[in-house]
Amino acid sequence: MASTVLRRSPKKLFAGRALSTAKAVTGTSLPKSWYNIQADLPVPLPPPLHPGELRPCTAEDFAPLFPESLIAQEVSTERYLDIPEEVREVLNLWRPTPLIRASRWEKILGLPENVKIFYKYEGGSPSGSHKTNTAVPQVYYNKQAGTKKITTETGAGQWGSALAWSGGQFGLPIEVYQVKVSYEQKPYRKAFIEACGADIFPSPSIRTTVGTKALEQDPKCPGSLGIAISEAIEACVSSGEAKYALGSVLSHVLMHQTVIGQEALEQLSHFGEYPDVVVGCTGGGSNFAGIAFPFLGQKLRAEAEKPEIRFVAVEPAACPSLTRGAYAYDFGDTAKLTPLLKAHTLGSGFMPPSVHSGGLRYHAMAPLISHLKELGTIEAEAVQQTAAFDAGSSFFRAEGILPAPEATHAIEGALQEARAAAKSGQPCVILFNMCGHGHFDMFAWEKYAKGEMEDFEFPEKELQEALKTVPGLNGVNWP
Questions:
Q1: Nearest to 113 by CA among 101, 121, 124, 123
Q2: Residue 251: DSSP 8-state
Q3: CA distances from 253 to 159, 160, 249, 374, 390 (A)
Q4: Euclidean distance between CA atoms 196 and 241, whole angstroms
Q5: Which helix (H) or strand (E) holds 339?
Q6: Please, which of 17, 172, 196, 221 could form a disulfide with 164 given CB 3.0 to 4.6 Å?
Q7: Sequential pLDDT tens for the chain (479 residues)
Q8: How far apart, in whole angstroms, are the C-alpha atoms of residue 144 and residue 300?
Q9: Largest CA distance in the chain
Q10: CB 302 within 8 A of CB 296
Q11: Ramachandran region, residue 27 (left: φ > 0; alpha: ψ -120 to 50; beta: rest)
Q12: Among candidate residues 311, 288, 291, 465, the one with its CA nearest the CA of residue 366
């Protein structure tokens, strides 16, 4: 069923609570460096393993996929890494992004005055999401290294759109493999990517041996990010002159997103506030890391204004890697072409249901975020997509921003925190990342408006079957 907010009389939406006069803050500048949380980890991140030799990977092992500069960032333990001026020049087209007090939404929810919700809005980027924050530097470093083409995968299309646009900024051709179910649901993502001058193909495709095999096994295969990653890597390696780019999961990607949280730290100070809880949706982990890591770094260094600050990662119940997956070494793709990464995983062969939050349909979580959860520094929860869309609808009616399906999960997480705080009577400042708009996702919002949204709970039996092939559950570990 669609949210009751859709049918509520506008005259009754804002009864009973004064609206805050301070609504939004942009007043800061784009950070000059990225924050690298690896410098503050109490326990080092387990290393990626070579899939054949089961030893820690070296820089040479990654050289066929990434330029040397990005490999160096991936393994760096320096706290801050400078953002090149050429990258800052492009990012300054839309950054800093606004931090907004959700005062109208607070009023709809009937929250007490001491429960406050703030959101960082990343939908003003050229691609409509946070993904462009890492796409720009990845293309820049590849261009500097002499790369001739970049291959990549994309789920819902935010990452493919971001990389395609960024490729145009530096004159670098982009080839995108999009998960087929999202390719069919979101045709205007394809149009956007092609308008940027990039090539896009539904995955699985017949362009690669990986895709061809997947279609032979299931001609109606809806695809997955694991398959799309395999196709993009195969296309990269077989090309001989291409490199590969990833929109989430890897440590350098998460680090590029920390411009979000660094800006939010300064912007919240203009409100005279500091969060009690930071919320983000998680699929691979990049936007959660972007908003949370600068605050979490303060906590790890015992510098947080509120030492008990919490961090909540919200994922779809249909693809619950953090809440139900095993923490073990596993492949990052279906064809097992990647190094083994220690992370919360559902198994590289996991085929998630065709939910509308395509950007969250990944079988594993970022190693850094998985590691932090194992250390007990972050929390995780899974929500159903109907509840997420209900929350997103309520937010849209109040704040005027139609969220992407992925972002509705963060909104639902923030809503749960607000209700819990209101019930307890304790003051609470909630910050979440509104990581992208839903203007390319009207197929999903149309189904929601018609009451046709479906919820999925992945059966435990199927989950256990998927986990049987995880190398980390079959004797592979380090140390």
A1: 101
A2: H
A3: 12, 14, 7, 21, 30
A4: 21
A5: none
A6: 196
A7: 333 333 233 334 444 454 444 577 777 789 999 999 999 999 999 999 998 899 999 999 999 999 999 999 999 999 999 999 999 999 999 999 999 999 999 999 999 999 999 999 999 999 999 999 999 999 999 999 999 999 999 988 999 999 999 999 999 999 999 999 889 988 999 999 999 999 999 999 999 999 999 999 999 999 988 899 899 999 999 988 999 999 999 999 999 999 999 999 999 999 999 999 999 999 999 999 999 999 999 999 999 999 999 999 999 998 899 999 999 999 988 888 889 999 999 998 777 655 544 455 678 899 999 999 999 999 999 999 999 999 999 999 999 999 999 999 999 999 999 999 999 999 999 999 999 999 998 988 999 999 998 898 878 888 888 898 899 998 888 77
A8: 35
A9: 66
A10: no
A11: beta
A12: 288
For 74, phi and psi rounded to 5 degrees?
A: -60, -40
Cite the DSSP H helix spans in 354-384: 367-374
pTM for the model stands at 0.92
Angle at 467 between CA 387 and CA 43, to 5 degrees: 85
Structure tokens at 468: 């049987």
Q: How far is CA 42 from its chain centroid?
A: 24
Q: Is the peptide bond before 96 cis (omega within 30 degrees of 0)?
A: yes
At residue 216, the 3 state secondary structure works out as: helix
Instruction: Give CA torsion, residues 462, 206, 129, 365, to 10 deg.
Output: 30
Question: What beta strand segments (E) does 254-391 contain?
Answer: 277-281, 310-316, 326-331, 340-345, 379-383
* 90 neighbors 122 (Cβ within 8 angstroms): no
Residue length of the chain = 479
Q: Measured between alpha carbons, how far is 211 from 179 in angstroms, rounded to an integer?
A: 11
Q: How many CA atoms lie within 13 A of 129 on its CB side?
A: 31
Backbone angles phi, psi at 164, to 5 degrees: -60, -45
Query: Sheet harboring 310-316: ordered strands across?
Result: 24-25, 99-101, 115-121, 428-434, 277-281, 310-316, 379-383
CA-closest candidate to residue 224, choices 153, 158, 163, 176: 153
